[in-house]
């Protein structure tokens, strides 16, 4: 009598997923290489060469013994690790000999091609891939690198499209780090895209278009994208047009802040960025048509045709939608799945993911540090690990209910997979994700199908009755999706914010979720420990961090923010919080005081002018009697450039706040003190004044803090 079949599958053999440890070694090499710094490509390559020779020796002198085989495998993984480090070093743009900045001379012109362009209210931003430097002798010197080119809005600039080639004059500058605490680090974001410099042009005469790469694959894809978008414009307007363009084409520049905020707060923002979900829908729609409806996969030739058409469709969509990292990953993954369909080979999803990851990381190791890349992979991993188990928890007799429950299970799996990264990067979590995520997945299927159908009907047939029908259906689906999102967004308590969530907490939560997946899949006594022990440690870590933050809040904290042409200070002590200066607008908050206030959990009770009409005394040791401001144990002297004659305080100040272009030549004499005060020059001062203050501080011997250079001033530091 045969033994009963276990109700759980054993862990897969490593032979089923050989690429998993390989891609792990590659990622380890990328991380170590990035941590030790750049400019070390040769040592990594030499070490890889030596290790490669040892691997070849181990393969040539094979042994029947187990340990030599294990040693050779370890050497092979070490080789991949070293190659990952070398590839990271060699692909670092500024380290290349032909990097544009290395050969840029004073009167050179720069030549490059527009890869992407985004219009704005004040400037038009173009992502440029540089190709050459043009000297005064008109000689072309090949150059590489990327930069962000900001152009003034004009009729001339409005005609630019991706693929245009430009020649322009100017001196690029390095991207700057954020100047206020907690704000989004644009420099780090663009650094991971291979962009390190920017250039602002003031006049249309500083640049000219010299041609276009209209015959390239990318240019053709961009033209298809514009034509496809035009079919949407003929039938959709407002938020429906913006969301449809983002959902189907990856065109996000039309989305309003209100719509973006609603999708973010409900955990559905991923649907507005073309990703693996969208590529999967395209693959599934075409596969269903070819294999399920037309039944072309019954023969070897039919399977080859289905796979070839699927791969072509997936990569065509990837190109038209902008070829983002998540789309590249998904296109690679579905290409491997299609190949498995031809050979009728069982493809393990983790092996498929590993192949996709290896290909992307080898081409561009910096891709690993992009949040979109990380989220797309962890979402798929979460779906694979949890969806099957969750689907079997509840059985519905209705096919429609089963489909809805499967969508909810997939949404839950994706949220579990991305939870540590989401909390770490965005520090918030949508509590209604189960409902909003299900609605979005179902509507995304309908929206993608109708968007593709409408593009074909309207693009090929022009303005017909059928195009009117598909356009109306697409607008209706998108309108209902938006209505659902705003409904969930307006429900009370829909968003959990966790500003204290750091890397340690994210790591502990990731281990716990991994243990839960292993427990559900393989049972065993070890996995509950792996699941719950990190949660207990996480709880202790959160409690300790919260208590430390509360103790820190009891002491006085002062922040002088950097806001262009404006002044703003925050003062907190215990539960009291006050602001001094000009209150930032809603548009300015995310780049000024908003992140810091949210992280520390306070909102100012009042925002007081630094030049009040009357003296003001507040609680928590705050008092304002212009030009003197007392905050806790500090005394501030305010020097305002629009005051006719500067005044001083009776007591020696510990700090001096310089606002609105006050000149150092008018610096008043101060009461004697044991140490000179720190002079803080904020963003309300023009850039041409900063050099004057640098020279004055060097002569007078005063500590100087320029928020335009060093960012916001924090006390205590």
From TrEMBL:
It comes from the Bacteria. Pfam families: Competence (PF03772), DUF4131 (PF13567). Residues 247-522 form the ComEC/Rec2-related protein domain. It is found in: Cell membrane. Keywords: Cell membrane, Membrane, Transmembrane, Transmembrane helix. The chain crosses the membrane at residues 12-32, 44-61, 68-86, 268-290, 302-320, 348-369, 375-395, 432-457, 469-488, 500-519, 526-544. It is a multi-pass membrane protein. Its main location: membrane. Signal peptide: none annotated. InterPro entries: ComEC_N (IPR004477), Competence_DNA_uptake (IPR052159), DUF4131 (IPR025405). NCBIfam families: ComEC_N-term. This is ComEC family competence protein. It comes from Neolewinella lacunae.
């Amino acid at each position: 009598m045969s033994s009963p079949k276990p109700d759980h599958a054993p862990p897969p053999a490593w032979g089923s997923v050989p690429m998993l440890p390989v891609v792990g070694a590659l990622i380890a090499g990328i991380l170590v290489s990035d941590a030790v710094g750049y400019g070390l490509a040769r040592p990594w390559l030499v070490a890889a060469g030596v290790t490669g020779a040892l691997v070849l020796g181990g393969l040539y002198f094979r042994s029947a013994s187990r340990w030599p085989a294990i040693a050779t495998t370890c050497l092979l993984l070490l080789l991949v690790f070293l190659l990952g480090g070398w590839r990271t070093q060699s692909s670092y743009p500024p380290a290349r000999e032909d990097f544009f900045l290395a050969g840029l001379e004073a009167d050179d012109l720069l030549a490059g091609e527009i890869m992407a362009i985004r219009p704005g209210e004040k400037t038009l931003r173009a992502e440029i891939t540089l190709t050459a430097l043009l000297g005064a002798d008109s000689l072309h010197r090949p150059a590489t690198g990327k930069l962000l080119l900001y152009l003034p809005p004009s009729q001339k600039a409005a005609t630019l499209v991706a693929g245009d080639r430009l020649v322009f004059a100017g001196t690029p500058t390095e991207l700057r780090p954020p100047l206020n605490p907690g704000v989004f680090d644009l420099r780090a974001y663009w650094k991971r895209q291979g962009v390190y410099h920017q250039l602002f042009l003031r006049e249309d005469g500083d640049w000219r278009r010299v041609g276009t790469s209209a015959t390239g694959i990318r240019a053709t894809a961009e033209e298809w994208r514009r034509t496809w978008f035009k079919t949407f414009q003929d039938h959709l307007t407002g938020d429906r047009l913006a969301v449809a363009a983002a959902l189907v084409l990856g065109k996000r520049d039309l989305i309003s802040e209100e719509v973006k905020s609603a999708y973010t707060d409900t955990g559905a923002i991923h649907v507005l960025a073309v990703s693996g979900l969208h590529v999967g829908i395209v693959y599934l729609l075409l596969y269903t048509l070819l294999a399920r409806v037309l039944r072309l996969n019954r023969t070897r030739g039919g399977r080859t045709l289905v796979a070839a058409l699927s791969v072509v469709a997936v990569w065509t969509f990837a190109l038209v939608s902008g070829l983002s990292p998540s789309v590249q990953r998904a296109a690679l993954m579905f290409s491997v799945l299609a190949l498995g369909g031809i050979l009728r080979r069982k493809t393990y999803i983790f092996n498929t993911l590993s192949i996709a990851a290896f290909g992307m990381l080898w081409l561009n190791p910096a891709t690993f540090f992009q949040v979109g890349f990380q989220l797309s992979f962890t979402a798929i991993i979460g779906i694979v690990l949890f969806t099957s188990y969750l689907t079997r928890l509840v059985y519905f007799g209705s096919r429609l209910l089963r489909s809805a429950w499967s969508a909810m299970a997939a949404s839950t799996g994706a949220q579990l997979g991305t939870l540590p990264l989401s909390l770490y990067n965005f520090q918030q979590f949508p509590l209604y994700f189960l409902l909003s995520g299900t609605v979005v997945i179902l509507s995304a299927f309908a929206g993608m199908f109708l968007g593709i159908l409408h593009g074909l009907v309207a693009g090929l047939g022009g303005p017909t009755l059928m195009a009117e029908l598909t356009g109306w259906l697409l607008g209706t689906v998108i309108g209902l999706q938006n209505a659902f999102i705003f409904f969930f967004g307006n429900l009370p308590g829909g968003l959990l914010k966790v500003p204290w969530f750091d890397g340690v907490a994210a790591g502990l939560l990731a281990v716990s979720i991994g243990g839960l997946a292993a427990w559900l899949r393989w049972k065993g006594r070890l996995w509950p420990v792996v699941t719950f022990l990190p949660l207990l440690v996480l709880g202790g870590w959160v409690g300790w961090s919260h208590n430390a933050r509360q103790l820190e809040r009891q002491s006085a904290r002062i922040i002088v923010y950097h806001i262009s042409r404006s002044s703003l200070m925050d003062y907190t002590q215990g539960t009291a919080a006050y602001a001094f200066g000009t209150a930032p607008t809603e548009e300015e908050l995310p780049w000024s005081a908003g992140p810091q206030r949210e992280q520390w959990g306070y909102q100012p009770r009042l925002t007081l002018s630094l030049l009040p009409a009357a003296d003001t005394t507040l609680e928590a040791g705050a008092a304002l009697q212009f030009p003197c401001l007392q905050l806790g144990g500090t005394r501030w002297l305010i020097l305002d450039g629009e005051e006719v004659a500067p005044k001083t305080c009776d007591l020696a100040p510990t700090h001096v706040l310089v606002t609105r272009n006050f000149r150092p030549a008018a610096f008043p004499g101060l009461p004697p003190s044991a140490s000179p005060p720190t002079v803080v020059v904020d963003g309300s001062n023009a850039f041409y004044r900063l050099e004057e203050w640098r020279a004055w501080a060097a002569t007078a011997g005063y500590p100087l803090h320029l928020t335009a250079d060093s960012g916001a001033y924090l006390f205590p530091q």
